[in-house]
Structures are given as C-alpha cells and as structure tokens.
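User: ok so my PI wants both of these folded by tonight, can you help

Assistant: No problem, let's get them done. Here's the first:
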Amino acid sequence: MSAADQLSPSRITPLPVSAAPRARRRHTWIALSFLLGVLLPSFGAGWYLYAVAADQYASTVGFSVRKEEVASPIELFGGIADVATTGSSDSDILYEFIQSQEIVEALERRLSLSPRYARATGDPFFAYDPAGTIEDLLNYWSYMVRITYDSTTELIEVRALAFTPEDATAIATGIFEESTRLVEKLSAVAQQDTIAFAEAEVERAVERLKAAREALTGFRSRTQIVDPTADLQGQMGLLSTLEQQLAEALIGADLLRESTRASDPRITQADLRIEVIEARIADERRKLGHDGGGDDYATKLAEYERLAVDREFAEQAYTAALATYDQALAEARRKSRYLAAYIKPTRAEASEFPRKEVLLGLVMFFLAAGWAIAVLVFYSVRDRR
C-alpha cells in the first residue's frame, strides 16, 4: 500500500466526539482548583498582611562580657599558689538566659510585657493574648526576640520586636539591664567563693605554721640546744683544739722518754694527760655522731634541719596565702567583670516587620507547590484506573 493511500481521508480514524469536551472539563477543574487552592488563599494572605497585620518595630542591642585579668602577686614574685577561675563562658550563659523563663518573668514584672504585646488588638495572628500563661508568653517571646551569638568572638546581638518603637526600645533596654544584673551576680558569686577559699587557705596556713613552730620549740626544750648549727661550730672548734693539744702532749711525752729515765714521774703525768685528752676527744666524737648512736649530735642536727625546713615552708605558704587573700579582697572591691554594649538599644523610625513581601511570597510558593503535587497525584491515580 502506498503512502498516499495511508494518508487518504478514508483511512484516518476519527476521534470520539466526547474527547474534546472531556479535555475541556479537565482544564476547567484544574483552573478552578488553582483558583480555590492558590489564588484565593494567596489573596487572603495578602489582604491580611497588608490590611490587618499590625506593624512591628525592631530595636537592636549588642553586647559582650568583658573581663579584667590582673596578675596575681604570687605570680609576680614567683610564688607557689594562685587563684584560678574556670568554667563555662559567660556569653554562653547569657545566650541561654535571654531565652529562659527567668528573664521573661523579670521583664513581665518590670515592663508588663503582656499588655505591650497585646496592643495589636485587631491582629489575630501576631498579637498576644494577655490571658495566656507564662509558658505561652515564653513561647511568644521566642518569636519576638531573636538572638545572634558568635561563639568565636563571644559577641551577642539581640533584636526585640514590638508594636511601637518605644516598646521595642524598652524591651531591648530591659534585656541589657537584666543581662547586666546576671553578670554582676555571677561575678559576686565567684568573688565570694574566691574569698572564702582564700580565708580557708589562710587559716590552714596559720595552723600549719603554728604546728611547725611548736615542733621546733619542743626540740629546743628537749635538747637544750637553740641552734645546732651554731653549736656544731663550737663543738668542731673544741674538737680541733683537743686534737691540737693531743698532738702537743704526744710530742712532749716522746721528748721526755728520749731525754729522761723511764721511771721519771713526768712521763707518767704526760701519759695520763694523753689518756685524758684522748678520752675527751672520743667523747666529743660520739656527740658528733662519728661512732653512731640514736641520740648523737648528727641525729639531733638532722631532726633540727627537718623541723627548720618545715617551718620555712610553712612560713612561705602562709605568706602566699596572705597574698592570695589580699588579691581576692582587691578583686572583690573592683568590678573585674562587666557587660559592655557595642550597640546601644536602637529606636526604630519605620516598621520593618512583619516582612510582608517575604511572607506573601512564601505563602504563594508553598500553596502553588502543594497544589501542583495534589493535581499530579490526583490525575496520576485517576489515569491508572
């Protein structure tokens, strides 16, 4: 069969008469669903945003916690103690505090947040119901207050929304003041803990010094020696003198034996002198510990040196504890931690919120997306039947 015969009018199968009206009905339903599902809700949202929604004004405040670090007197003198403070960052604490129920309750008492947030009486969506609970107010607070926190620089920026510029500025100022109170409270608690710790260290150092001095005093009373080091020098001098006298006595006895008879009484006297000097030298050496013994001079000297070292260490610890205590008192008298505002609470001249264009665009986008998905699903299911 030729191509001309295939394309002849007698060979073309005509479409059913009902196909075109059915396609037109489908287009009509699609257009109607787009009108009802997208256009009308978008028109309603636009009417609400531009005709009903109350204008909101923003006030911004930015701050950070500043600390003054001062070198400890113990560090300056190379001591053995110091006061160290560790813990979470104050900025982290503030970030959580601004989102907490505590600050909401505080500002509710100070500024009456509920009436301020309920000013937009004709706005059913953005206005706050003053009959709500504190939990409702906290939930509303999370929408009206936005916090930006940079953990690297520890800078906090807060944006507070309200229905009048004055209310927005008052709320931002209240947030800054309550944050300042929290920082001062944290600083006071830290200072009290530091002072209490320093006082306890001073008391412990005093008791330790007393015990060291009492032990040294007991040693002196028992041994009848005030300073064994000085006494040792005297003992060594005496021993040296005795050894010199012994040498002279030995030489003298040898000279007598060579120059006189053996029965000469002077030889007997010289030998007796030598024996006495040797006995004295032996006794002095026993005192110095050369011959051992538990109560010899070496044992007493070792005990004295140990007690002296304990007393010296206790005195140094006491001096360090006093310096730390003085530093803690100085820190308590001055403001070492404070809140510095790098952006003071601003006052708005024009309403920037709610962002009507953005909200309307989002509403239209999600409505159109939902409508398109619904239409595709509906006709996909229908065509499979």
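One down. Here's the second:
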Amino acid sequence: MLKLIKLEWKKNNIGKYIRNALILAGCLCLFIFALAFLGIANDPDGTLDAAEGMNAISAPIELFTSMSFLIFTSVMLSSFIVSAYKNKTMNLMFSYPIKRQKILASQMLAVWLFNFAALVLTKLAVYLCIFAGSKCMPSSFFIDFNIGDLSFYLQLILKSGVIVSMSFIALFIGMIKKSSKTTIVTSFLLIFLTQANVGDFSMAGNALFPVVLTALSFLFAFLSIYNAERKDLL
C-alpha cells in the first residue's frame, strides 16, 4: 500500500501541492495575525466585531483553516480520482494486477495523509504566530489556548482528522455525479453545514457532531470503493 501511495504522489506531481499548501499556510498565518493584532476585525470604535462565541482566537483559527483545507482536500481528491476516471487514466491503473479497491484506497489515503499532515502543520504555524504576537502586542481576541498543554495538541490532531475525512463525503457525491465540480461544490456545502451559525446554534459547538461526522465520512469512503470490482468505469 505504501508503494501505491508513493506512486500516486509521484504520478500527480505532489510537489505542486506542497507548494500550494505552503502558500495557503502563509496566507492563513498573515490573515489571522492581522485579524488578531492589526484591528481588521474591529469596528471603527475599536471594539471587536464578532459573532457570539467567536471572541476567542481559536474560533477564527479553526474556522478558516478548516474551510481552506476541506476545499483543498476535495480539490486533490477530484484531481486524483474523479478526473482520472474522466480522463480514462484510471483504465490503465485498473489494468494492473492489483485489486481496484486497493488502488482507490491508496489514492484516497495519499490525499488524506498529505492533507492531514498539512492541516496539522498549518494550524501549529498559525497558533505559534498568534502565541508569539501575543507576547508583545495586544490582541483583539481572547487568547484561549495553552500551547504547552498536551490536550491542545490532541484536540488539534483530532479536529484535523475530522475535517480532512469530511472530504470523502464530497468525493462520493462527485463520483456519483461523475463531476469534479460537484466534488468541490459539495465541499463548500459541507462548510456551510458544519461551520455556520443559526442564531446561537452551531454544529461546530456540538460535542457529539464530530463523532457522527467522522463515522459518516468513513462510511462514504467505504461506499466509494466497495463496489469498484464490479461496476464499470465512469
């Protein structure tokens, strides 16, 4: 499986995705730093203009990093899998003496592993920027994280895994519709579903929601590959 994952990275030119992920991480660091310390989130009178529950810095960090990498992951899945079906390059892959399910699983794992690592490192970079800035500048947001606490890193890893796994839902729908655009549009809809507030209610604040969402994500991942041996190519 590891060889297949490395083959997928090489075949899809992983270097360009590394470059794009670095650019995305840099932009997120700059934007959230400006949000916290340069007053771009403040009203003209200097008070913070934020929805209820968004006055702590971890809220915008989790929101913007999750939004960015859910879309980024869905774009990669679309390129690695859905486009491969449409461009008929999957025909060649399926001609190898390897089970189709294993090939699809390696493609999904190649994307998942890359984006999980990228999201964890991006979040760490953003939190470190905010932590460093808070030592010498007043923040518009309440600094609500402890970078020296083990639970901080555990939550960061778990939340990153949930967000990246959500892209499997977008992949499944994109494969049904045989469309890369549908995969990406579905990722936007997932963002609205999971991150938006309806009054004081938010799915993101529900403790049970990440568990249910992760279970659904892996169910959709299973559904994406379980019948690969019998169904025709798209």
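The chain has one domain: 2-225. DSSP finds eight helices and two strands in the chain. Good luck tonight!
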